[in-house]
User: What shape does this take?
Amino acid sequence: MRVKLVVAYDGTAYCGWQIQPNGITVQQVLNETLSQFFHQEIAVVGASRTDSGVHALCNVCAFDVDTRMPADKISYALNQFLPDDISVVASEEVDKDFHPRFQKGKKTYEYKILNSRFPNPVERLYSLFYHRSLDVERMKKAASYLVGEHDFTSFSSIHAQTNTFVRRVYCCDVEKDEGDMITIHIEGNGFLYNMVRIIAGTLIEVGNGRIEPEAVKDILEAKDRSKAGPTAPPEGLMLMDIQYDTSNNKNVIDSKETT
Amino acid sequence: MRVKLVVAYDGTAYCGWQIQPNGITVQQVLNETLSQFFHQEIAVVGASRTDSGVHALCNVCAFDVDTRMPADKISYALNQFLPDDISVVASEEVDKDFHPRFQKGKKTYEYKILNSRFPNPVERLYSLFYHRSLDVERMKKAASYLVGEHDFTSFSSIHAQTNTFVRRVYCCDVEKDEGDMITIHIEGNGFLYNMVRIIAGTLIEVGNGRIEPEAVKDILEAKDRSKAGPTAPPEGLMLMDIQYDTSNNKNVIDSKETT
Assistant: This one.
């Protein structure tokens, strides 16, 4: 059967999701744990190939396995063997044609910026510390120009491999809480390589006054990575959620995207 | 001059606050960093000698130093030399008779319990994961009996060294947020050794049904550690705040207390 897992992880100790030669990845740990547990070679396919240091509350992956164990019990069993920084929060049987990356759906990311005079040690692994003053109202306005269907070439790493740079952003909000934590909340039908981190880096430049909020429209139109702000560091980024449509339309989340 | 520091730290990697032979402590790192920075032997005195693995947003310490550097600039300079998991969030000159532990004041702690079916890796360092169902209303009721001036012998480690077990708890609230995180918020004029962690362990036993909320009154009256619940693990505990009275009355925070 094909099993879908929802996986949460602290990305601090991992070289991202995808298996690579030089460093431990989340995918590798899942493959090894599942293979040992089921006594067969198992390889998971992930929805979001998050970068080194990026966290996830709800990444999705799927794998095929020959077992009589009920799919919804796999999460409980697996957590006994996974390290503390990876947790399977749900497991279920899915159709044989379910593919976490090609399936149509909606992804939600958050990027956190601690905007205070001094760093906070207990937030350091899950937010960017930024001590210069940021104007949240300017950031909100800039973020509003990103909503809708756009060509996001300017907000994509030059290393992106993709057929199209067009993505739809459903919402992009910026909020600051009482603890000086600014959260950029963004939902879309898919994200290009480094897209959320480049959006965060650009909104920071808007917040500190180096870029005008209205300039975001020009940056989008330029289709030129060099016009946007820097790529914000990975620790502030968290994949919050992936929701799949119940219909079976595919290929709307581009197969080559990663963030 | 005497300098007061407000210090935040992630206690995960430390054997608590107080210098000890077998392991690195927060006090040791501060002493070494300050001594190197000022080229003189410096020893800080802390307000709360937090246990191994306990965190702090605002612990307070003080030290004497011979320097012409303005006291309020010391925090900025020091953070350049401290590790990422310790941060000085404020520094100021204080009277020569200021003592962080003997000065009258109010301390605030929070204990966090993630009460969900599956652990959350990004919360694991700063909360206790507890998967059995907890009834927050029962916990709230039990907590209300702790408010006021009581003999907290039953909620103190047998290793406590103190002249009196009487403490005043100003408030003790229990709240659960949308993310299944239960927060025990407690304010008092001082806390005995392990007191907040034993309160947390007892409230968990009330939440899961093993102890009745009303039994907390009997536990207080018994003055017997064995009547209360277990000592909850350190990772869920955070020292949130220490507020000193502006008046100079002393000895209200007991000199031997630690949590």
Q: What stands out?
A: Residues 248-258 of chain B have pLDDT under 50 and may be disordered. Residues 26-38 of chain B form the longest helix (13 residues). The domain at 2-94 of chain B is CATH 3.30.70.580 (Alpha-Beta Plaits).
